[in-house]
Structures are given as structure tokens and as C-alpha cells.
Amino acid sequence: MIAQNNVRSTNNDPVESSESYPITGGSNGAGTSRLFRQFGSLFSSPAPTNDPAGYVEFGSISDPVASSGRTLGTFAGVFCPVALSMFSALVFIRVGFIVGNAGLYVTLLQFIIAYVILLFTVSSVCAISTNGAVEGGGVYFMISRTLGPEFGGSIGTLFFLANVVGCGLAISGCAEGIIENFGPTDGTDSGSIPDGRWWRFLYCSSLNTLMLIVVLIGAEMFAKTSMMILGVVVICLLSTYISFLTQGPMDVGIPHENSLVNFTTARYTGIQADTLWSNLHTNYTKDYTSNGNQVNFAVVFGVLFSGVTGIMAGANMSGELKNPSKSIPAGTLSAVLFTFLCYMALSVLIAATSTSTLLQNNFLFLGPINIWPTFVTIGILTATFSTGLSNLIGASRVMEALAKDRVFGPLMSFVVKGTYKNNPIAAVIASWVLVEAILLIGSLNTIAQINSVLFMLAYLATNLACLGIEITGAPNFRPTYKYFTWHTAFIGLLGTAIMMFVINSIYALSSIILCLLLVIALHLFSPASQGAQWGSISQALMFHQVRKYLLMLDSRKDHVKFWRPQMLLLVSSPRSCCPLIHFVNDMKKGGLYVIGHVKVGEFGDNDSSNDPTIEEYTQWLSLVDHMKVKAFVELTLSRNVREGIQHLIRISGMGAMKPNTTILGFYDEEQSKDFFEYEDSPYKTSEFDGNGIKLFPYRKSGESKSLGVVDYVRIIDDVLRMRKNLCLCRHFHRLDKHMIARNNHIRYIDVWPVNIFEPKNEDAFDVVSQFMMQLACIINMLPVWKKLELRVFLCESETVSENSAAFERPAEHRLDQRLKLLRISASIHKIPEWNKDIDFAKHRNILKQFTGNSDSNQVMAEENINRSKLYMQRINQIIRDRSNATAVTFMYLPTPPATPSVDYREKCHHYLDLLTELTFDLPPTILVHGIDAVTSTTL
């Protein structure tokens, strides 16, 4: 009985079909979501987000209700944090160190290189942030939603560490400024506060704790005061510019911790051409703050770049911005331009006024030469403290986003639980602890190199994300930021990659290795399943490449040397044929494997407006995942099974990558077994049972088959007429691969290269037998099957005569030579009773009438039919006697009866009856019929 919309069959009911186009709502849904976010003013439906505050953000406009909790605009939320982070400890503490060692030319070149990298990276950030709603997590959110959870999680983790290191860097700079102004100045213990390695660690820890308190109160307080802090820093910087223009020559003291020189003062000259000339070229010396390590281009650039890594500070505040898509590009670009001009002017003024001796031996010389030294002290403290706060806030927000996305599973669940009034308390405290660990390094210049490399890796990933999505040509990537191209992303990617290794090759290589290890670990162990929801650029890249290579794969250039099986397995119900699904997966040898299923019904018969195969497609994909087979799924809806199978054979695959072999279950009366319920089954699962409904129903005991004998035989004929190799599989519910691996009793894979219906001496050398041996050889190459011996049975149908031995030797010899030429390792076994007990000549003409080779249209007598069954039973007995230790048997499948013959229906029944008798009680058996040559003896 045929169900209205489904074929219920097992490997008893042969066929199953499937044709499936990967139609899902993922990409369309994502595209629609982006449109709603980008053009929120045109739509009334809000697009939900996962940001910490739980509000809705449209991306280009802000709805008063949707943006509740988001209070920051472009200037306060982006420009001020970015500008403050890019000034950091560099502007007052290390520009002199850079100019004094690298010279003005190289300093300006390094600033240009750094800002070019930053500018192109900002372009990528702007492109991503204007292509959809940006939520909490900043750069992590952007990368993860573009590159997918594995790359996003790994880069997000390293970006979190970069913010932690950046916070440590800023705190170290702040402590250095405090020591310079309030600590010993003459090498004695005089001063307001003591100095020393552990005293400095204490001061840094105190500053870190103060930042912790501020952030625990709330990031909004910092954001609201950032404008005032930036104003203070700008005033202090202006006082420095004025001091360069007004202060005359003077001697400046050398810090007491500088033990590399034996003089106590160095000269500040004011603006003089000679001073500028002397500072134009490089003059690398040793760094007195890092145990006298030699300074070089890489060290200088690492320190310089660490000071300008704050371009993501605005993106990190994305969860608090009213309109991230507008504020992030505008605020970040304007802050980059502003700080660039400030640094260039400061570098020129320093080179024109201070000797290289002063610059190399007193990194805090700006204080003594200032018209009011307190301005520099205030500038150092405010710039470094605000930068540290920004990095601590950024680190906690990234950590919170990682925890909410469950990238590391329950490992970070404490972060989600430790949130109070949208402030991630637990993440802030965890970040604070890691900053304490960074502070143990001590040297600011050493921390600066680590900081630069980690931030560069985050920038590299951002550029990579944009470059990848631009190359794939994804139609939904339509950023409103118009100054982005794949060229800008590529230059930014290349620049960051090169300069990472220029700064410190060991740190760069270590960070990349750590990133790759995180990618692998997250891919293997992460429970995060957001890849389908977020979208992964890997899917877009694979689509792009696969399409290109499919077009290059030309079926006209196929050669038999490179033939491989491309399987279409027709399945009615996978519940009853799990071992067969697994066996075909073994037999495909890296070729295409398609599991096909035909759903019987008329399109539009049911109440649903959708194609019913669309709803079932995801169930079949889950089945493939459960079975752990590398297969595609194809489903089709058809009025009957035979027509549906014709659909599947024609349309499965694409281009030159189409199935060349069709596999069906055998048509018999054996009772089906549910491998999903069977207690000892390796396929046992309750995944497909729910709400009292079992997915993939199968034919129960007493139910009639949905497919008739004649239709089944016609399907066999259809497959051969469509020039596809054919396999009929019987008894595969008995196959147990685990038993084969454990049990030494099972030792053989058997091949019977003889057409039992019309035996000839040439059967072992024809196309069908060669195809049969090829499949057996493929199975024998796999690890589980490799221990089994391949046996080929030589069955000759000639009558025994006096010269039989002389006659048989050439056939055996020919077969042995053919196997050697084909590189098939197999033993040949002759059957002594084959000619003694069976009169082949007597049965040949009778059996021919059941195959496509028959020229007879006569009706067969009942006596001949019974005699043929007895003949098959005798052949079956011969095969069974040799199959006690056999795992799988390959047998020759004769062609079915010719369609226009007389009594075609009767002949179909007799044909199938004889095949049933032939394969009765054998091990798992495959009846094979090959169409084309598949083996080659040439190189």
C-alpha cells in the first residue's frame, strides 16, 4: 500500500530515492535580516540581536524603543575612546625614544606605515559595521559573524588578550610617569615615594585596582567623562607644542635608573637647524628600561605601533552606541586623522629641539622642558589611565560576548551568571586578574611588542574577513561605506602580516600558532552551533571554489585510469538499511555518494503551500550526520517510485560529477529490522523519535509492499537503459563491521564472475566481471576489510573431457594474468562439481528466456520453470558451501527480461524468483551489472 506522501520501504522494499537541492532559509533569512537592519526606517519589524543589553538595533538608524540602554553618540562613544587609546602612553613617554633612535626620517616613515595599515584596517571595520547591525563584542562580533565561530572564537580570544596586554601597557606607562615625577631623582632614596621593581608592581597593581573599581561602577561613567579626559590631554599636548616654541636651551637631568651612562645631564637646545639635522638619521643605542637591550628598527616600530592600536576602542563600545553603523566609521576615521597630525607635528618638534643624547637617555624629558611641568604629569596620567580603562572595558566586553556565544561551552558560564545591570562583573574581574599577570613583565617596551603583535593579529583577521567576503562576491555584502575595496583589505592584510614579523618574529609566530590551535580546538570540541545562524565565510569560499572547479571538470576528458565509483543509493527507509548505507560509504573510494529518496505524492495535494521534501531535507541531513557518512542527500516528489527514480538518476550530481552507479535494495519478503531501536545496534538512537511520531517509517510485518514486482524489474531495466552501473544488495541487515574486525572466523570477500543464467567461459573477462572485481578490490583496500582475503571463483561451463585439464589451465592462467595486470591481489578457486553435477547446456536456453538476451517470445512451460528453480537451488548450494567464512559476496547480475516480450509480467516474476533462489541464505550479497570498462592495465 502506498502512503499518500511517502514510500515506506526497507531493504526489502528496494528503492528509495532522493533528490535534494540544498534549499534552506539560512542565506535568504540572513539577507532579509540585514535589509531590515540597514533600512530600519522603511520597515516596522525589529530585528533581534544578542547583545548584552538585550535591545534591538537596526544598524543605520536608531529606534527610541529599540535602542533603550544605548546612550553614546559618535563623539563620546567613538572619537574620544579611539583618540585617547591612540595617544595612550606613547604621546608623552615614548615619542622621544622613537625619534632619538630611529631618526626623524625613519620615525615619519614608521608613522606613515603604521597609519596606512590602520587606515586600511579601519576601512575593513567600517565595511563590516555598515553592512549590518553591530552588537556587543566589537571586533569579535564582526569577525565571528563573518568568518564563523571557529575563526571568530580564536581571534576573539586573542583580541581579548590584546586588550588585556594593552591595559597592562597603559598602566606601566602611567606608573612610569608617577615614578618620574614623585620618585627619587638623584640616585638616592630621596623623593615622595620609593622606587624599585616591586614598588613599581605595587603602584601598577594599585592603578589596576582603581580601574577595576571605575569599570565595576559602569562603563557609561567612563564614556561620559571621556570627553573631559580628552580635553585635558589635548590641553597638555598643546602646552608641549608651545613649550617647544618658547623654551630656550637648558640641561635636563638623566633618570637615576639609567645605569648605562656615566653623565647626569643632557642638552635641550630649543629649535635649531643643527639639532634637526643631527636627528634626521638613525642612531640606535641600548634601552635603559629593559636591562640594556639593543634597540633596532623592529623594537622602535613595536613601541610606536603599540601606542596607536586603539582603532578598535570605538568598535568595542558597539553595545553602548546608539547607531554603531554610523558612529564607528565617522568617529574612528576622524580620530585616526587627528592623532596622526598630532604625532607628526610632535615628532618634527622633538627632532628640532632635543639632542639624541637626551632622547635616548631620558624618555620623560617632556616634563622638565615644559613651561609648566605639571601639564605633562597630568597628560601622562590622564592619557594612560583612560587608555587602560578603555582596554579593560574592551577586554571585559569581548569576554562577555565569547561567553554568551558559548564558544568555550560551560567553561565561561560564570561570566554570563556574573552580570549585574548589564555590567559583566565576572568578566571585568577576570580581565583584571590577567592584567595583574601581565604587569609582572615589568618593562614597558617589552609589553609594547607583545601588545603590537596581538593587535596586529586581530587587524589581520579583520582584513581577512573582509577580503574573503569580497572575493566570494556575496550579494548580501553591501556596505554603505563606499571607500572599501578588496585592494584596501589586501593591503591591510599584507601590511599587518609583514609588520608582525618585523616587530618580533617569535611573538608573531607564537601568536599565529596559538590562533591555529584555538581554531582546531574550537572546531573539534566547541559546542557552539551558531555557524548556521551567523554564516561562515568558509562556506562562501568553498562555494566559490567548488563552482569554479566543477566548471573545469569536463566529462569529455574522463579516462578509465581515473575512474572511481560515484554512487546513488536509493533508500526507502534508512531505519532498516543502516549497514547498507555504511557499506556503500566504504565502497565509494572518495567518489560522489548520494543517498536518494522518492516521496510518493502529487505536488500541491497537501494543505501546505511548500514542497514537502523541503521540510524533510533537514531530517535526512541529520541522518547523514548520525550515520557519519560522507554523502549528499537528494529528495524528489513523484507520482510513483519508478518515475521518481528516473528523476534522481538524471538530476543527481552536477556537471561531470554525477553518479555512475545506482544501488538498490533487493526485493524479497524478509522482515525488516529497525536499527535505530535494536538494542545491540551501533546505529541505535532516539534522535528521530519524537512526540509519538517516528521519522523514516518502514514496512511492518503484514503490510503490503508499496512497489510491485514488475515495477521493480522495470526499474532495473531503466537503470541499465540509462547507462548506469547497477547493484542489487541483499541480506545487508546481517552485515556487522564490528564483528568482522573482531572475529577471525570471517576471512573472505568472494567474487563469482559467471552469469548463472547463461554461463560462458568468457564471463570472467567481460565488462560486468571486471566491474565486480573492481568494487571488491576497493572494499578490500579499506582498513576494516583489508585483513580479508579476496577470492575469485573460476566457473567454466564446458563439459568435462579427456583434454579438460589442458583446456582449463589456459583459462586459469589468463585470469591470473589479468588480475596481476589489474594489480588485484586475489586467489583463484575452481569449482570441481560445477560441470559434474550441472547440465548447463540443458538449462541455458530455458534461462535465456528470462533475460534481455532472449530472442524467444514463446510462453514457458511450468515444467521448465520448476526445473530452472531446482537449477538455481543447486547453484545456491554450491555457493553456500563455500561461504561459511565470507563477509560479502559479489555476483553477476543478468539483464532483466526484454520489455516487448510475450508474458512480460510472468517473466518478471520468474526472473526475480530465480534471483531470490540464487541468493537464498547467502552472506550479504551484491548482484552487479557493469556497463562500461572501469579498469586499466596501463600507466
Automatic annotation (TrEMBL):
Domain of life: Eukaryota
Signal peptide: none
Span list, region Disordered: 1-27
Gene Ontology molecular functions: potassium:chloride symporter activity
Ranges where the Amino acid permease/ SLC12A domain occurs: 84-568
Transmembrane annotation, as ranges: 75-99, 111-134, 198-219, 226-244, 295-315, 327-351, 371-394, 425-444, 450-471, 483-501, 507-525
Protein's UniProt name: Solute carrier family 12 member 9
